[in-house]
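Following the same procedure, backbone shapes were mapped to integers, as reproduced here:
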Amino acid sequence: MKGQQQLKKSKVVKIDSRKSWEHHITNATNKGYPVMVHFSAYWCMPSITMNPFFEELASTYQSVLFLNVDVDEVKLPSWKSKPFLPFC
């Protein structure tokens, strides 16, 4: 299939639960990996606009764990308040 564009796999991990958050943070901590988190929301256009840039960073800095957390989907009780979305 010549000329067919190959799909790129995302290097950003979507966090969909507290358990997923704890797993990835614990794993990164144990291995000594730095972590970069993009807190986003479906209703925040500037946050959504950041997604391609965040993907590009994840492809460039492969020794860093990049996580995406939708603040409306994932409720983490360790946060005393909802994470602030400075763009919105």
Observations:
- The radius of gyration is 15 Å.
- Residues 12-70 form a domain with the Glutaredoxin fold (CATH 3.40.30.10).
- The helical segments are 18-31, 45-49, 51-60.
